[in-house]
Amino acid sequence: MGTPAKLRIIFGDDDIRKLILPAGIPSSLTDLICAIRESFDIPMDFSVLYHDSDFNGQFFTLTSIGDVEDKATLKVVPVKPVVLTLSSVQEMEFDSPPPRESSDAISIHSSSSSSDTIILSSPDESGTLRRSQPWPARFEIPTFSFDVEQHLQAGNQAFLKDGSLLNHPSLTSSVLEKLAEVVFGYTAYPTGIQILTVVEALIEKFPCLREPGSFNGLYGWQQRMKWKMGNYRAKLRGRQLACLELEVNSLKGRSSNETGSSKGIKRPKKAEVNYLPPLPIGETEDTLEKERVDMLQEIKKKNNERVISEKMDRSFSFRRQEVVKQCPAIQDFREKWPALFSEVQIKEEFKRITTVPLERTFLTKLDFYTPKMQEIFSKKGGVAGTKIRPLLDSLSQRHIEARREAIIRTLMEFLGESSGELFKDYKQRGSSRGPG
């Protein structure tokens, strides 16, 4: 047993605690994280920062257990979980979870019936109606109309008293309609996992709605929610609203052999929040095509990044239509949209589609998973293991950029990829720089 150790753990400005380790500092970073999790009963994922005296007490991401000493100061930072949505390619037309109402959503309500409710995103600076939030990590049930809320609260009280369940068909219809409205604000085609997330949140908040006879009390609600989303989309199509996500899947645009089949359905994949948003307010395909041609001329004259970014943002929906409907070859698409293939615009396009910043998200997740990857890489044998070990040794460097480069190079060696295709090394040669 090692010498007992004490650590100062910071959770917040007003929440600082002491961690006592009777067996001393753990031998690995994973063991330390487990000790912190168990000692303070932390359910969510988190990363650990350490107090570095070499940089006037600033905090750095902890990647090596060697940076932890007795009476060291560590800081626990919560990390949002990574949610993967997997769906079968042969899945029927309905399948995914719901959106939370926010200040960027405009709800147009009919005073007579909730069935006339449609959710639209508020226009951004470019005048484009876009979704501003990805699917939430935890779906929150919206507030229903006054009478529905009254019935549900009364049902919950009866359930807590004697376990009785609420059976009210018209109430069920109102609940499904509101949920479909909110879900559509996130995605027009929710996946089965997303649908399950919505139903689980509903039953957790209103246990009186559990379905009698179902093995988990959810199955019937899942099926109703899938059909309700299909009905909701059909209702919007019936009103002939300009909703490209629905128009692209209308029967008019499909061949006869695809009629009634789910094979030809075009829907968002993974993190695509803005899969096929509508054109900017007051714009048409002709006006945006003219603007694209003008932009090409402007690029040749002067490469004004601000103006280009603004025009690329305005033409985003126009571009998405071309990608989704026509699936152009990369070379043809590059010739048509050369400005899109700059580093800045690649990042911007990623954010337009997913609402998530590309580089920051990647680097944050890279830092978070670095300790676990180190453990995996260190067990690699053979020729690859021989190449990996010097790279793992360089991870002890304090410069975060150097550590990130080392872990990416190590990952490529581990996967058998050529790092030369991703990295280009340069050496200083006198006053010039040349490939090394």
Describe this protein's structure.
This protein has 436 residues and is of the alpha+beta class. It folds into four domains: 74 residues, Phosphatidylinositol 3-kinase Catalytic Subunit, Chain A, domain 1 (Ubiquitin-like (UB roll), Roll); 154 residues, no CATH class; 70 residues, no CATH class; 78 residues, no CATH class. 43% of the residues lie in helices and 11% in strands. The protein has 14 helices and nine strands. Strands 2-1-5-3-4 form a five-stranded mixed sheet, with helices on one face. It has a two-stranded antiparallel sheet with strand order 6-7. Strands 8-9 form a two-stranded antiparallel sheet. α7 packs antiparallel against α8 and α13 packs antiparallel against α14. The longest helix has 21 residues.
